[in-house]
Design a protein that fits this description.
elongated, 186 residues, Rossmann fold, 2 domains, Arc Repressor Mutant, subunit A, alpha/beta, three-stranded antiparallel β-sheet, five-stranded parallel β-sheet
């Protein structure tokens, strides 16, 4: 491998899509230098960065009835090394929560057979409840207040949400550190 890599070469080196790498570079998460209009990366710097940023892979549940959104979130998380399971209904989510221990769950508020409140209430009864993040197009919905009663510190993100925000929250779910506050622009 070359000592200096292009964005395309870095994406291949990291086993990620070029778009995911670009988003991480633009957010200042991966060390690189812009030369003209092109990004360049020192293999030595990338290897050091990888050593310093080894995160435990998280076990993630994405509860979203929109297949396109669910697959987009799952792909970004999988490319970052996390294990992702998807559910499109409350019933599927509840069955999965009974079977598998998840570190974090991204939860749509309105689902075909119920609401996010149903999932939050059931998850609160589990011995090892995952961190739950509501991702919704309806952040002012009355259900949010009801969810906050059960989980006062819950994070609520408004769609569209930045994939970097989901990646940060996921990484922190396994690090034992407090979760970062999402930026206002998500």
């Amino acid at each position: 491998m070359k000592a200096i890599m292009s964005l395309t070469e870095l994406a291949s080196y990291l086993g990620m899509s070029q778009a995911s790498v670009y988003h991480l570079v633009a957010a200042g998460k991966i060390p690189g230098k812009k030369v003209g209009k092109q990004w360049r990366f020192s293999r030595e710097s990338i290897d050091r960065w990888l050593q310093n940023h080894k995160a435990q892979p998280a076990n993630v549940l994405v509860i979203e009835d929109d297949l396109l959104i669910r697959n987009l979130i799952a792909k970004a998380l999988e490319e970052a090394g996390h294990r992702v399971t998807g559910a499109s209904t409350v019933a599927e989510a509840l069955a999965l929560l009974q079977e598998i221990r998840f570190d974090i769950a991204f939860l749509d508020l309105l689902l075909p057979d119920g609401t996010g409140l149903d999932v939050v209430a059931a998850a609160a009864q589990l011995q090892a409840s995952p961190v739950i993040v509501v991702v919704t197009g309806h952040p002012e919905h009355d259900l949010i207040d009801k969810i906050r009663v059960l989980l006062p510190g819950i994070t609520v993100l408004e769609k569209p949400v930045r994939l970097e925000t989901l990646l940060d929250l996921t990484a922190h779910s396994t690090s034992g550190k407090a979760q970062p506050k999402p930026r206002e622009d998500q």
